[in-house]
Design a protein that fits this description.
By secondary structure, the protein is an all-alpha fold. The protein has 1 helix and no strands.
Length: 101
């Protein structure tokens, strides 16, 4: 009986060693997963920062575009005014002056 008990104790001890080895492997895997999760959180934070930067650049570009559009409108009205003035001057000269060069 003692031999059988010793054999069973050895078997139990071997099984416990297998379980302990499995736990050690699981702990290593958990540490790897935790590290990967931390890395992902850091990358997510960086991406959020990049998105905020892009949003601010997009807003700045919209403001610049609005300024350019406003400037173009002013240039068009200036051109219309200059052309109208030129046409009036030519018309005045041709109708009221005797076409003497």
């Amino acid at each position: 009986r003692l031999t059988t008990m010793e054999t069973r104790l050895i078997e139990v001890d071997n099984r416990l060693k297998v379980i302990e080895n499995g736990q050690a492997e699981m702990k290593a895997d958990v540490k790897t997963v935790q590290k990967d999760t931390t890395d992902l959180k850091i990358e997510l934070t960086e991406v959020k920062g990049d998105i905020k930067t892009l949003d601010s650049k997009f807003d700045d570009m919209n403001k610049r575009l609005e300024k350019v559009e406003g400037t173009q409108k002013n240039q068009i009205w200036t051109l219309i005014t200059v052309l109208s003035g030129s046409l009036l001057a030519v018309g005045f000269r041709s109708f009221f002056i005797d076409n003497n060069p």
